[in-house]
Design a protein that fits this description.
With 94 residues, the chain is mostly helical. It contains 3 helices and 2 strands. The chain has a domain of 39 residues: Histone, subunit A. It has a two-stranded antiparallel sheet.
């Protein structure tokens, strides 16, 4: 079902786009070409084709999660401008 020029103008209005007359004509042709192609795809027999989220097989490329000792508190607080009771002291924000 091809789009009319009025439908393209309506979509442009909803998207708050100003389109010149040439752009309206061009977008009407381009959108109709896209819809025509989609109709060709809809005509394909996809019976038995497994749905996929991606065309390539994806795998996790992250490293294994390994527990390691953290930074000692004294070393972490060493460069802090102010500390109190073993924690960073920051100015109150109200």
């Amino acid at each position: 079902m091809p789009l009319s020029r009025e439908e393209v103008e309506h979509v442009a209005l909803l998207a708050r786009l100003y389109l010149s007359e040439e752009e309206k004509e061009a977008y009407t042709k381009q959108l109709n070409a896209i819809l025509e192609y989609m109709e060709k795809l809809n005509a394909l027999n996809t019976e038995g084709v497994e749905p996929t989220a991606h065309v390539l097989p994806l795998r996790n490329v992250f490293r294994e999660d390994v527990v390691k000792p953290g930074l000692p508190r004294e070393k972490a607080l060493k460069g802090a401008p102010a500390t109190r009771e073993g924690q960073f002291e920051v100015p109150r924000v109200v």
